[in-house]
Amino acid sequence: MDNNLTQRLPQFNDDYHGLPVTEKTIADRLAALGYRNSIIGKWHLGEDEKFQPLQRGFHEFWGYLGGGHHYFKSEPNGEGYLCPIVCTYKEAQAITYLTDDKGDECVDFIRRHKEQPFFLFASFNAPHAPMHATKEDLKLFKHIKDKKRRAYCAMTHRLDVNVGRIINELKKHDLYENTLIAFLSDNGGPKSNGSLNAPLNGSKGILLEGGIRVPFAISWPQAIDAGQVYHHPVSSLDLTATFVELAGGKITTADKLDGVNLMPYILGENKGRPHPEMKWQFTISKSIRQGDWKLVQIPDRLPMLYNIKADISEQNNLAHLHGDKVATMLKELGDWSVGLPHPLFLEGANWKQEQLKLYDYPWRLEQF
Questions:
Q1: Closest CA to 250 of 64, 24, 29
Q2: Which band of pLDDT confidence, cut at 50, 70 and 90, is reported for residue 5?
Q3: Is the Cβ–Cβ distance between 16 and 48 less than 8 Å?
Q4: I need a surface site. Which of 3, 9, 46, 50 has the fewest CB within 10 A?
Q5: First vs last Cα of the chain: how many Å apart?
C-alpha cells in the first residue's frame, strides 16, 4: 500500500481492494492474547465483507468504512460522506455531531468491558473534511477571521473534549493508571482545511516534514513519568510491536514488522535509536532518513538533502555539498523501493500532479 484506498480502477483486481487478508492486524494479534477489541469511527481499509473490522481481529465496530463522513447526518441509502453508520452490536442511533457520537461510543465501550483487557481504537477523523463544527464551538474561536481556520480550531477543540471524556471514564473505573494511551495523527495538515504545520515545511500528501511529522503522545501513568520528550524519530508502525509485547505476546523476526517495541527506549533501558534509518514511499514521493540527514526524491528534480536537526523547516538543500552522501542514500532508497511488492490499488492519476505542486507551494513557516 503506497496510496489511499479510493475508487476502483479497471487495471486492478477488485478482490484485492483493501488491506490484504493475509496480513495480521494489531487487533488480530491482541485478540489472540485475550483482548476485547473495538474500533470506533473511520476504517478505510476495504469495504468488502472480508476486509471489514470483524474479519480483521475486532469484536465490535461503530463507524463508517470509507475515509470520511458528514458530521451532522447520514442517509439510509447514502454514499460517500453520507453513508449509513455501521454498528455491529446494537442499532446505531441517529448522528448528532459525529465527534461527540464517537466519544459516546468510546465511553460506552469502556463501561461494558472494564472488567477485562481491552483494545480500543478510537478512530476519530476530526479535523478531516468536511469542515463541520458546532455553532457553540465556532463561537469559542470567533476572533479568528479565516473561516476555514476557525472551523479547524473548533473541530480540534471538540476532539480534545472527547479525548478528555475517554480519559475521565478510565479514571472513573480506576483503569487510567494502568492503561496505555497513544494519541497521534496519521499525517500532517493538508492545504485545504485551514491547518498550519509551521515551523514544518509541506503538508499532507508529500514527504517533507509537514506531511509526515505529527503529534505523537504516549501516556501510561503506572510506568511512564509525565512530561518527558523523546527526541529520536519513532513511527506509528511501532505501536503494534509495543502493544503486543506489553500484552504478553512476542514479536520475532519472522513477523517481518518494520515497527519495534518502544518501551525500552522510552524508559531509558535502550539508549540507541529505535530507527537508525527510516524510509517512506507515497505515490510520487520517496524519502530516506539516516540519523539527522533526510533525502527526498520526486520526479521533476534532483534529490533534495536536508539536515533535519539543524534545519527543521527544510529550507537549505545541501545535496550539492554532499554528493557522496546523496549517492549512498539514493542507492539504499532505490534498493528498498524496488524490493517492495506492487501496490494492489491506486488513487486516481490526478493526485500525482496535485502532490507534485505541493512541493513548490509557499508554506507558512511561522505560527500565528
A1: 29
A2: confident
A3: no
A4: 50
A5: 36
Give the cell for residue 63: 463507524
Cell of 208: 517533507
Given a cut of 80, whether residue 368 has pLDDT beyond it is no
Q: Please report the pLDDT score of residue 96 as a whole number.
A: 98
Say how far apart CA 305 and CA 314 lie, in whole Å: 9
Reported as a pLDDT band with limits 50, 70 and 90, residue 11 is confident
Distance CA 77, CA 79 (A): 7
In the prediction, which pLDDT does 8 show?
A: 84
236-241, Cβ contacts within 8 angstroms, sequence gap of 24 or more:
236/184, 236/186, 238/262, 238/274, 239/26, 239/182, 240/26, 240/29
State the Cα–Cα distance between residues 226 and 167, nearest whole angstrom.
15
C-alpha cell at position 167 = 480519559
Domain ranges of the chain: 14-266, 277-358
d(CA 297, CA 182): 31
Q: Which CATH number fits domain 14-266: 3.40.50.300, 3.40.720.10, 3.40.630.30, 3.40.50.11540?
A: 3.40.720.10
Instruction: Give the cell for residue 30.
Output: 491482541
Residue carrying C-alpha cell 489511499: 4
**Mind listing the pLDDT tens digit for each residue in 321-331?**
999 999 999 99
What is residue 10's predicted lDDT score, i.e. its pLDDT? Answer: 86
- Radius of gyration for the chain, computed over Cα atoms and rounded to the nearest angstrom: 21
What's residue 14's pLDDT?
87
- Runs of H (alpha helix) within 247-359: 263-266, 323-338, 350-358
Supply the mean pLDDT for the chain.
Answer: 96
| Confidence band of 1 (pLDDT split at 50, 70, 90) | confident
Asked whether the beta carbons of 68 and 129 are under 8 A apart, the reply is: yes
Pairing of strands 36-42, 60-64: parallel
Mean pLDDT across 345-363: 92
Q: Which residue has the cell 509557499?
A: 362
